[in-house]
């Protein structure tokens, strides 16, 4: 009976030690994953800041593009507007008759 209890105790001891080793491995893996998560969160925050910067630069470029109309485009736009005004004047004249 004592031998049986000793065998059970030895088997329990072996399984317990194995369980402790598994627990320690999981703790190490958990710590490693937490570190990786922190790195990825920092990387994500940096990417978000970069995206905000790029969006701001894009808005500035769009604004600059609107303001930088060259002479040819300005002349063409004025001619188109003049034609539209003449057409509207013709239409008003026809409506007045």
Strand content: under 5%
Coarse structural class: mainly alpha
Helix content: over 70%
Radius of gyration: 39 Å
The secondary-structure element order is: HH
Termini gap: 125 Å
Which shape, going by the Cα principal axes?
rod-shaped
Q: Treating each run of at least 4 consecutive H or I residues as one helix, how many helices?
A: 2
Largest sheet: none
Mean pLDDT, as a whole number? 89
Query: Uncertain runs with pLDDT below 50, 5 residues or more?
Result: none
Instruction: Please give the number of β-strands.
Output: 0
List the helices and strands and how they pair.
Layout: H1 2-67, H2 71-96
Structure notes:
The chain has a domain of 67 residues. The protein has two helices and no strands. The chain is rod-shaped, with a radius of gyration of 39 Å. 95% of the residues lie in helices and 0% in strands. The protein has 97 residues and is mostly helical.
Short description, anyone?
This protein is an all-alpha fold. It contains 2 helices and no strands. It has a domain of 67 residues.
Task: Write out key terms for the chains shown.
coiled coil, rod-shaped, mainly alpha, Cell division protein ZapB, 97 residues
């Amino acid at each position: 009976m004592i031998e049986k209890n000793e065998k059970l105790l030895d088997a329990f001891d072996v399984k317990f030690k194995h369980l402790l080793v598994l627990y320690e491995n999981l703790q190490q893996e958990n710590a490693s994953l937490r570190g990786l998560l922190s790195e990825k969160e920092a990387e994500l925050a940096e990417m978000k800041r970069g995206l905000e910067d790029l969006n701001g630069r894009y808005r500035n470029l769009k604004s600059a593009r609107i303001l930088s109309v060259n002479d040819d485009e300005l002349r063409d736009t004025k001619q188109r507007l003049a034609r539209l005004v003449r057409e509207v004047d013709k239409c008003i004249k026809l409506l007045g008759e």
